[in-house]
Amino acid sequence: MAAEPLSNGAAHQSVPGRYILPVHKRPSYSANGKVAPPMLPVVDLGGDDDGRIAEEIIRAGREFGFFQVVNHGVPEEVMGAMMRAAEEFFGLPANEKMAYYSTDGKQLPRFHTSVRNGAGEEFLYWRDCLKLGCHPPEWPDNPRGLGAALEPYTAAVMAAARRVLRLTAIGLGLEEGHFDGSLSGSGLMNVNHYPPCPDPSLTLGAGPHCDPGLVTVLMENVGGGLQMLLHGDGDAGGGGVMWVDVDAAPGALVLNFGHQMEVVSNGRLRSAEHRVVTSARGARTSLATFVWPEPGCTVAPAQELVLAAGEGPLYKPHSYGEFLGAYLAEGGVKEAAMAHLKH
């Protein structure tokens, strides 16, 4: 279904029909429970006490799958330049943005408006997106400053992600370099733009999903919008599940684990289910950098974890490229995607 990107014209006075979700998929249709919304865990990557930092990452990954990092090594000026360049792209005249428009999911860079197919339903989410390559960085020629901002930002964010992956390996009791090489050798950036929505009760910026890869690093210009599905079965106490806002401190980066981390950890760490709600107040732009295995990489539970616990592997070895195809076909729905991985 082709559609004109939301950022191409004047502000909408009502939600067009193709963006109105079925009633059972709207934001008001939400899991509810007795869990008090928690503070998003803060992990300070500064200092040299790797054991302590690793424990904090594992605790956050076990309970939530989400956490924020400070002292992450991405300079404030690098973050600011990247966000300004991203916002400038979505402010370009429509004809200049449409030079990069494509429905080919393999094309990079690629500008598109989001669409989700599933269960016989076809509708649009309230989001425009610019997809950029990270290995090596790939960007549009316009705006001019995007490439100059993207290269240092990508390098710094990937360095932070690799540090988190090394610390995660330590926390799991694996070799520090377990996630090095092809297991984390690929990446992609989604520059997401959510224009003001005239009726946020009717649509979502992104539907409930888990990310397919290892870890995602997020920077946003305006807080509010991202929500995680909180399970009340951990140390947070309570029962049931509910959607809660993911709010980060100024200058922090938000990280969440994806399906491949749940597989490698044999279920010890949680692939975090999340969604994006819209706002009538103003636009929101976010940059999500995904760290993925290379397509031909075989992913499986770490043998050290399976043997140490005396338990069988919960997930079967799989090609990441094949899983990604199944994941996209399932629309990112967690249960359906994970069914392709479980024994």
Automatic annotation (TrEMBL):
Report the leader peptide range: none
Per its UniProt record, the required cofactor names are: Fe cation
What are the UniProt keywords, alphabetically?
A: Iron, Metal-binding, Oxidoreductase
| MF-aspect GO terms | metal ion binding; oxidoreductase activity
Q: Which Pfam families match?
A: 2OG-FeII_Oxy (PF03171), DIOX_N (PF14226)
The Fe2OG dioxygenase domain extends over: 184-295
Q: Which InterPro entries match?
A: DIOX_N (IPR026992), IPNS-like_FE2OG_OXY (IPR044861), IPNS-like_sf (IPR027443), Oxoglu/Fe-dep_dioxygenase_dom (IPR005123), Plant_2OG-oxidoreductases (IPR050295)
Instruction: Give the UniProt family note.
Output: Belongs to the iron/ascorbate-dependent oxidoreductase family.
**Know the name of this protein?**
Fe2OG dioxygenase domain-containing protein
Q: What is the lineage of its organism?
A: Eukaryota, Viridiplantae, Streptophyta, Embryophyta, Tracheophyta
